[in-house]
Design goal:
With 526 residues, the protein is mainly α. Helices cover 55% and strands 1% of the residues. Among the domains are: 2-193, no CATH class; 422-526, no CATH class. It has 25 helices and 2 strands.
């Protein structure tokens, strides 16, 4: 299971290349910034929890069980005819390292609530585990009833994480043939530069009723400007658009209008809004928008600095391959100094030294680029790019040697590095022990190491974890492990011990060791 999961994690990375009130029939995972691109016919909305409001999740120290154990309170039933959309996935169990029956006896709505939890600040190893879970082929929960609630929740979470290419591939596999799924497919297309294909699909799908804004946009993209103008004029006459919407669409159809002030961007801003502003020549910065919008800045038209900053956000989220940032960092000489340009300069200096095999220059440039990567929280992507090559540089000593050792331990070559390099002190010895999975007799060098050690020497599970595992709810147990470790980073030391213990208890020792190494090397401690 360990080797298979490592392959699944690699595949997940490789696939990358004012408050709104939740309506009663909105899905549990509703995203407030989705474009209203289609009008859903009555009865097509995904069912929400009874009463329309998700029930509160159990407190951290409560077991999510009812009288009688960890099994769902009611008998779950599902129609036997036809496949469930919730079974769709991109990574087969033989590759993901996760069992096909990942969700076991769990209930769809409880799983969906667990999936929707915010995990943007998770450690890189745990983010990758979560991505694999979202992309894995699994047996759908028994009570899924063919509604596709879990599929939509997974797609929404992928979009929120910025994993747009993975979300698009999942929708393709599942078949985005409902208005709710098409809305997501449409927005992904807008942000990844595939809007013409989305408009064509909308035009050939009678079951998808375009909203006025989407219809005007697509008519214009198809070159049918007269029809687009007539559609907008009719809608204005009938009062079907607000003044600000009408003004924005008018500017979109006729950007040469003089003495016209741009309407302020709506809140929340949708991908369609962003695309229209961009088409007018009034592109809005994406730094303060959800990370998914960063994809729109990867296009060459966005400018080099904007591309780099967008790629850093997505690389930090773990949703695009590190090679993207490598290509951007080394594309040309930095245009200025400070901020992103210091990272570019430091990266280029080190890359050139490594390529030349110049140990003296490597010793000078590695501490600089490592400090820059720490500032941007890009240490693990840096290790994925350079860990193997640094492990082959025995001449590095002192500060550069210590950094190279840690970079190697954050890379897929961690075990090789731990076996071939002699630790310089008890901290490095403990890190090597974690990489190899043997810390018996080693002294934990700091407070974080002291809460990590019991997970590998005398594992203990929380009551919630025991209840979930005993109730055949492995997927929810893994999500709990991620939460417990996050709580440990934020100041609850027992969370680290229990979360790592849980990962090891279900056979994910490799993930537990990588997570422990990241806890110590990255120093994400709240």
């Amino acid at each position: 299971m360990r080797t298979d999961l490592a392959r699944g994690l690699a595949l997940a990375a490789g696939l990358m290349c004012p408050a709104m009130t939740r309506a009663e029939n909105d899905p549990l995972s509703a995203i407030d910034w989705l474009s209203q691109s289609v009008t859903a016919p009555a009865g097509t909305a995904v069912a929400a929890a009874p009463g329309g409001t998700p029930a509160p999740r159990p407190a951290p120290d409560e077991a999510p069980v009812v009288k009688g154990g960890a099994l769902p309170s009611d008998v779950a039933t599902s129609p036997l005819d036809g496949p469930s959309p919730d079974a769709a996935g991109l990574i087969a169990p033989s590759v993901s390292g996760l069992p096909a029956n990942l969700w076991g006896a769990g209930r769809t709505e409880e799983i969906a609530r667990a999936v929707t939890e915010d995990r943007m600040d998770s450690l890189p190893a745990l983010r990758q585990l979560f991505l694999v879970m979202l992309l894995a082929e699994t047996v759908p929960p028994a009570d899924n009833a063919g509604r596709g609630i879990l599929l939509q929740t997974r797609v929404d979470k992928l979009m929120q994480l910025g994993a747009l290419e993975q979300a698009a591939a999942l929708l393709d596999v599942a078949g985005a043939d409902t208005p709710e799924l098409f809305r997501r497919s449409f927005d992904i297309a807008l942000l990844t530069g595939n809007e013409d294909r989305a408009c064509e699909r909308m035009r050939h799908a009678p079951g998808l009723a375009p909203t006025l804004q989407a219809r005007v946009f697509c008519l214009a993209r198809e070159g049918n400007w007269d029809a687009a103008a007539l559609t907008l004029s009719t809608a204005k006459a009938l009062g079907q658009v607000t003044p600000s919407q009408a003004e924005l669409l008018t500017r979109f159809l006729d950007p040469e209008i003089e003495n016209a002030l741009m309407p302020p961007p709506p809140v929340p801003l949708t991908p369609l809004d962003w695309k229209i502003y961009d088409a007018i020549g009034e592109s809005l910065p994406t730094a303060s928008l959800p990370v998914a919008f960063a994809y729109a800045e990867l296009a060459p038209a966005a400018g080099w600095k904007a591309q780099i900053e967008a790629a850093e956000r997505l690389t930090r989220a773990g949703t695009i391959a590190p090679n993207v940032i490598l290509g951007l960092y080394t594309e040309r000489a930095p245009a200025a100094s400070g901020g992103v340009w210091d990272r570019v300069e430091g990266f280029q200096d080190f890359d050139a030294a490594l390529a030349a095999g110049d140990a003296t220059r490597m010793a000078q440039t590695l501490p600089v680029v490592w400090a820059r990567m720490q500032e941007a929280e890009l240490e693990v992507p840096f290790a994925l790019l350079y860990g193997r090559m640094l492990a082959e540089q025995p001449a590095l000593t002192g500060e550069a040697g210590a950094i190279a050792y840690r970079v190697g331990l954050l890379s897929p070559q961690a075990e090789t590095v731990a076996r071939t390099r002699t630790p310089a002190d008890e901290t490095e010895a403990f890190l090597a022990g974690l990489a190899l999975g043997h810390i018996e007799g080693l002294h934990p060098p700091d407070s974080m190491a002291r809460v990590i050690a019991p997970a590998f020497l005398a594992p203990r599970l929380s009551d919630r974890a025991q209840a979930l595992i005993g109730g055949n709810r492995l997927g929810e147990a893994l999500l709990l492990a991620i939460e417990e470790i996050a709580s440990g980073v934020e100041g609850n030391p027992d969370g680290v011990t229990e979360g790592l213990s849980l990962l090891r208890a279900v056979g994910l020792d490799g993930v537990a060791r990588r997570t422990a190494l990241e806890l110590l090397i990255l120093e994400r401690r709240g």
